[in-house]
Amino acid sequence: MKQQVVEVLKGVVDLPIDNMTQLLETPPTREQGDVAFPCFQLAKVYRQAPPKIAEDIVSKLDATHLEKNGIKEVVQAGPYVNFFFDRQAYTAKVINTRIDQQLEEVKVGKDKSIVVEYSAPNIAKHFKLYHIRSTMIGQALANVYGALGYQVERINHVGDWGTQFGKLIAAYVKWGNEEKVKADPITELVALYVKFHEEAENDSSLEDEGRAWFKKLEDGDEQAVRLWKWFGEESLKEFNKIYDLLGVEFDHVLGESFYSNKMDDVLAELKEKDLLEESEGALVVSLDEQNIPPCIIQKRDGTSIYATRDIAAALYRGKKFNPEKMLYVVDQRQALHFQQVFSVVEKMGYEFGQSCEHLPFGIMKIEGEVGSTRKGKGVLLDEVLNAAIDKAKYIVEEKNPSLENKDEVAEAIGVGAIVFNDLKHHRTHEIDFKWDEAFNFEGKTGPYVQYTHARMRSLLRRAGSDTFESTPHAVYQSDLAWDIIFAIEQYPQVLVETTKKNDPSQVAKYLLDICQLFNRYYANERFFVEDEAEQQAKLTLAYKAAEILEHGLSMLTIKAPHQI
Ligand code: ARG
């Protein structure tokens, strides 16, 4: 609807379109209109009082142009211009348009590609609770970009290279036990790594051994490579269990090791472009102009580092996919690292350096505790997910003991509670996960949305069909129904906004609104009625809302069972 308002305003108001769109508001009550344009900002430009400007705008708007855009009436109210839409015409359009048709209007990503990097856990380490943030924010963004027509390249940049793996191999060779690793791979590997550091405090030769093993690994030594591969495979098995549970998928699982043989080329190119400097024995790219510390490319001992691998990765992605944007969903602490990496890529003359964007996010706590510690302890994601599923089983059992696929539904609700709780907050906010809050069927939760959706489906089942159509009907004229229609029409724009801000909470909040609007409607109107046309109109409304909820949840990678 905002689009239509912008369409009629653009010949009359002297503001850039984006700016105008941002100013548009939804009035607090329906009597005031469907969309409002505030004139405060124009006051400075026109040197006039906002109400006067609003009045002028109203007088200048062209009646046929308004009608063509579905607007029935425009009024000045103080400093605002308020727009009323032709409910009848709008309803006709909304009510029988399928979601895929709705989305056809916003295929802004057609013929474009985008790279989204997310999750990126480290092998031989546990998948911690906080990893869920990068994993689910990234997956949700990838879904939404996909819905807007982008060719999305989903990348998991697994941490599988670096001197720490030399240490791990050294520890395994010294103290490791194959059976124990096989029984519980990651726990055992973490224990070996911790032991290495404890022992190294009293025995400095261990550090050298670790380095030597990493050198062997880099040189392709048979034993080193075999062990490293084994650790990697075991880790990925664990990660994949979690990804399966979460419904997370990647197009490319390319660990840091993938770039290890591309380091020399990066180095040569930097040298050739005269960007390398020596600093205390290391090779760096100075970033003084950017006002940030230099990016270290090669350490004094000749080994490459994390940043160099990221430069190689950016070059690889930029050249291979020619993307409009390259997104990195990685926690806040790595902000400087990415600034450095992107700056180096730009200095190398690659325009795609400017398309790289780091999307940081706030930390996640659980019942007030931080789910991660440097010591390798901390809350594990699979433990939290399994506890959530157990809790959901109990709830489902209580709510609907005769449900057939109870386990499946409990899994959807348990996982949905955690994921929704993650995604409903603005990406950059800190989250404190509280068990009771996340499972509140009446609060702003995943289970609330899932349950509202299932209830709509059950109304439809009672009516004996699973798709519904209707012609515009008087029931849609009521404010309660109109609000739902209005919201449904907004859906494609919500997805566009989500990509503009790279913030999936836009979708989550929108779904909560739809639920609230529908529940209010249902509480205030008699849903099952005698009159056939009226009944059909009401069912169609529920059907449309259910479809939107299911689609929206799928954007968040949350399942929407039809029966709970
Ligand atoms: N594996 C890293 C970590 O756990 C995150 C990787 C982020 N992505 C990147 N391209 N550097 O800290």
Essential attributes:
564 residues; alpha/beta; Gyrase A, domain 2; Rossmann fold; Isoleucyl-tRNA Synthetase, Domain 1; 3 domains; 5-stranded parallel β-sheet; 3-stranded antiparallel β-sheet; 14 strands; globular; binds arginine
Helix and strand arrangement:
Elements: H1 2-9, H2 17-23, E1 35-38, H3 40-46, H4 50-60, H5 63-68, E2 71-77, E3 80-85, H6 87-95, H7 99-104, E4 113-117, H8 131-147, E5 151-156, H9 163-175, H10 178-183, H11 185-200, H12 205-218, H13 222-246, E6 252-253, H14 263-272, E7 276-279, E8 282-285, E9 295-298, H15 306-321, E10 325-329, H16 335-347, E11 356-359, E12 364-366, E13 369-370, H17 381-399, H18 406-423, E14 431-433, H19 435-438, H20 446-462, H21 479-501, H22 505-524, H23 532-555
Parallel strand pairs: 4-5, 4-10, 5-6, 10-11, 12-14
Antiparallel strand pairs: 1-3, 2-3, 7-8, 8-9, 12-13
Helix pairs in contact: 6-21, 8-21, 9-11, 9-12, 12-13, 15-16, 17-18, 20-22, 20-23, 21-22, 21-23, 22-23
Bound molecules: arginine (ARG).
CATH class of the largest domain: Alpha Beta
CATH homology superfamily of the largest domain: HUPs
The class by helix and strand makeup works out as alpha/beta
Strand content: 5-15%
CATH-derived topology of the largest domain: Rossmann fold
How many domains make up the coordinates?
Answer: 3
Globally, the shape reads globular
What molecules are bound to this protein?
Answer: arginine
In order across it, which strands form the biggest sheet? 6-5-4-10-11
The second-level CATH architecture of the largest domain is 3-Layer(aba) Sandwich
Give the distance, in angstroms, between the N- and C-terminal Cα atoms: 34 Å
User: What composes the largest sheet?
Assistant: 5 strands, parallel
Number of helices: 23
Quick check: average pLDDT?
94
Number of strands: 14
Residue runs with pLDDT of under 50 for 5 or more positions: none
What percent of residues adopt helix (DSSP H or I)?
Answer: 40-55%
